[in-house]
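INFO batch 0412 | record 1 of 1 | parsing
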Amino acid sequence: MRIATYNINGVKARLPRLLEWLDETKPDIACLQEVKSQDDGFPIGEFERAGYGAIWHGQKSFNGVAILARNAQPVEAQRTLPGDPEDEHARYLEADVFGVRVASIYLPNGNPQPGPKFDYKLKWMQRLRARAAGLMAAEIPAVLAGDYNVIPTPKDIWSSSAMLDDALRQPESIAAYRTLLAEGWTDALATHYPQGGVWTYWDFQAGAWQRDHGFRIDHLLLSPLLADRLVACGVDKDHRGREKASDHAPTWIELAA
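INFO prediction complete | emitting tokens
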């Protein structure tokens, strides 16, 4: 089973590239972030014609998450992250697909920091930790997949001295991410590429793609039951270089049956 996460940066603007990727790689499950579409504008018909069922949680102009399943219909388990009834951002969606619980996550960026946006990021990560703990306690085979907006280690960015003032590299952000791992979740790419140097994002600005100035912020965290089934993982880097592509590349895992 192949499960992928892809910050598409606008599902309508990138739809040709997204459908191209689905056709070429045929993931069984695809978690999308930054859909940037209201619910009634989500192009469900295009995905159904491509052979995918879908659920989505949209928001006008920004945020938005979705889960696609090949030749199947995801069964929604949770919409929005519990813990803050006033949070209206469309950043979290959870579903059961093919016997696996999958969450599509668009974690807050947190810039500028310090400030209210960074505070919101850290509180959101606390809520994610609580939800993850519930899944772990229930022994549900789960994947927490998405754009975490956290660069976990200096090996996960093109230069260890780059972006040190950015919210993605703050000690508090990294500590919150490491807490998830300490509580039993496995970072799939970090496990298979311990040397680092694997990027999932290249900014549109300053020639970042051309100079390979990227970093890793798209992560797939596996519960113990699924970590034991992990056989491969990677990044579809070539899709980042295509015309009118997202600034992220699709990131994926493969699980044994």
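INFO post-check: The helical segments are 15-25, 44-49, 116-137, 171-182, 188-192, 224-227.
INFO record closed
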